[in-house]
Amino acid sequence: MKSATAGEEDLRAADREQLEAHGIDIEEARRQLAILRDPPPKAELIRPAVPGDGVAALPVGPGADRLAEEGRSAARSGRMIRFVPASGAASRLFAELKAAGAGGESDHPVLRRFENARRHLPFDGGAADVLDRYGETPKALIPFHRYPDGEVRTALEEHLVEAAAVLGGGGSAALHFSVASRHRPAFEALLDERLPALERRCGCRFGVTLSHQSPATDSIALDERDRPFRLMDDPAAPLLVRPGGHGALLRNLQQLADQGFELIAIKNIDNMQPEPFQGPAVRTLRVLAGMARELARSSDRPSRVCGVVPTLGTAGGGPFWVRDASGEVGLQIVETSQIDMDDAEQSAILGGAGYFNPVFMVCAVLGPGGEPYRLENYVDHGASFLVHKSHGGRPLFSLERPGLWNGSMAGWKTRFVDVPGEVYTPVKTVFDLAGAEHRCGGDDE
Asked: Are residues 324 and 377 in the same domain?
């Protein structure tokens, strides 16, 4: 492989102008090329985090009541904001349905399954109508739940309702959604239409803000010949610049910290229950927020309290004890792609994981004097994701930033807590919306 120094020669004056216009510093581009050519070692797992060794029980009794009240107080005082990554489209949600419809087979098993589930789904119309209307819609704006009075709520609206419940009535609930810039008008239109009625129903005000993933966090790539990948197979063509993955959202969290928010509760857009079933999540979020405040008082760095649930075969990251590059062992959330699966010992440790990260956490991002931590200082850049993709039929090798709750928070003080399974009801396919955990009496049971 070429050295990083040689990589500097790959970037022409026109490339530098292109990168500067995109907001990418030339030294950052060189750093990316160096990592692509000489990838850092994989994560070193020591052992899974388990109850009594890295995973704490959720507090109960008077202690839990005290923590819950402290968390509720943080929300009511405007010191806590909910952060929801919401840029994803619903294309994966409907992928199975779309593939079935593309075959032209009207009696396809997937289409039959959809028809059988329709009475439990929050949509009007058949499969073709649903695909036409929602196939490329952001998942946040997809109908999620139908209520007995006929009201249909999107995932975004359910986040608002749950955030209001964390307040416990009155006050102002702060929420922030990261969205794709092309979808921002649709988000704003829904908020303009629905916020007044939801504020009346919930008895509180909503402070909702939106942001985009900064272009300055995008990444460049290499081609098969170890050269910067260009839009055409021509050395004079512009560079291909790709989104840097959800770790790029660390910059969005920094903006919230700079605004003075003490606590940031993070949940995925698709993990929402209907209002009658939100009680466990509301209670647990309050307790985790109280725990995050306590953890922050004894910390000299950003800290987080992360809910974890039993794996039950769920794919995704989990809690582990990990040795970092300096030799220190600490708790981290690790994805399968961060592990050398050819290493039998590492693979066995990964296979022994008993818990999964549902993205149900509260982060404390202010120092003892109320000053925001510089979150970039706590990133493990060696935990970047290296991915093989293609563009225009040509293979490429690209870099994604360390995952938001993986390497981007590797230097944070971390506590894992075993939380009730009821708080995790994700919607990964359209058929998940027909499950009992997403029915709220608005259909024929």
From this structure: yes
Q: Based on the domain organization, do 65 and 7 belong to the same domain?
A: no
Cβ neighbors of 81 (< 8 A, separation 6 or more) are 174, 175, 176, 256, 261, 263, 264, 265
Asked if the structure places residue 54 within a domain, the reply is: yes
Whether residue 31 is found in the same domain as residue 46: no
| Helix, strand, coil distribution of the chain in percent, nearest 5 | 40, 25, 35
Whether residue 243 lies inside any domain: the answer is yes
DSSP codes of every residue in 356-421? E--SEEEEE-B-TTSPBP-GGGG--GGG-EEEEEEETTEEEEEEEPPPTTTGGGTTSEEEEEE--G
Q: What is the spatial distance between Cα 365 and Cα 375, in angstroms, rounded to a whole number?
A: 8
Any domain includes 413: yes
311 part of a folded domain: yes
65 burial class (0-12, 13-18, 19+ CB within 10 angstroms)? middle
DSSP-assigned letters across all residues of 276-296: GG-HHHHHHHHHHHHHHHHHH
Question: Which backbone phi and psi does 370 adopt, to 5 degrees?
Answer: 90, 5
E strand or H helix at 208, and its extent? strand 205-211
Distance CA 301, CA 413 (A): 7
29 with 50, same domain? Answer: no
Q: Do 34 and 59 fall into the same domain?
A: no
Its domain, for residue 376, covers: 41-82+176-188+209-423
Distance of alpha carbon 84 from the chain centroid: 7
Q: How are strands ordered across the β-sheet holding 44-48?
A: 44-48, 318-323, 329-334
User: Residue 211's beta-bridge partner residues?
Assistant: 178
- What contacts 170, CB < 8 A, 6 or more positions away? 76, 203, 204
pLDDT in tens, 280-323: 999 999 999 999 999 999 999 999 999 999 987 666 789 999 99
Collapsed DSSP state (helix, strand, coil) of residue 308? strand
Q: What is the pLDDT of residues 80-92, one digit of tens each?
A: 999 999 998 888 8
pLDDT tens digits for 324-375? 988 999 999 999 999 999 999 999 999 999 999 999 999 999 999 999 999 9
* CA dihedral for 259, 260, 266, 270, sign (positive or negative): negative
Cα separation, 439 vs 144, in Å, equals: 9
Please count the structural domains in the chain.
2
Q: Do residue 408 and residue 347 come from a single domain?
A: yes
Nearest Cα neighbor of 160 from 88, 86, 82, 90 is 82
